[in-house]
Fold this protein.
Amino acid sequence: MYPELFHIGSLTIYSYGFFILIGVIVAYFFVKKNAGVYQLNSEKVSELFLWCIAGVFGGGKLFFFFEKPGYYASHFSEFLTDLGSGFVFYGSFLTTIPILIWWFRKNKLPVWDMFDLVGIGGAFVHAFGKIGCFMAGCCHGKVCHNSWGVIFSDPKSHAEPLNTALYPVQLWDSAIIFLAIICMLYLKKRKHFSGQLFLIYGLWYALGRFITENYRGDEERGYLFNGALSHSQFIAILVFVSCAIIYFWRWKSAKKMEHRE
């Protein structure tokens, strides 16, 4: 595809970063539009996004480092300067959650309701980011022998091998996330308990990611249990189980509250 969109002088505009930026802009205006009910002004929304960006960038990069720690320990400058790819979603996800909990409590905001709001915004960033992955060739699929395979020919692409049809895993992931967004938007005013939207996002993506991981072709990501599970599949199981337990617990608590009323 097109890992580099264009150049402005010596500045390179990477497709990955470009689509992430689109997602951030969409997420920002979505959260800003819906934050009034929590009395969040533009300044507070901007502060929230700065903390989110710190968690997403720091956690995503940290988990990426541990996929190939030996290599990046000796090529640290490459690790820091690779902004055209080089992030792990679950690293961003798991790092940002405690940061958000701290920020919500600091500002005396309802934690679960805010997770529902920020979850939709974050999903927009995630979905557009996966399109950026596709453009950059990172997170690419295995060799595909079917008609829906895509071919990466740009020598700067992260996809391997080049000029060979690969499964469009990045687009599958993006579609999964956009479906989750549609579901969350539909349930936004119909939810049964606070946190339901965020937990649905976690459940849906973990399930979808576990499946699409089987078609990933970037083998250096690392595997567990003699190759039975990739790191991301293992984390997906933990996320799914955790979200399912919390979902059941909050659903049951909401039902008890309804009966009391």
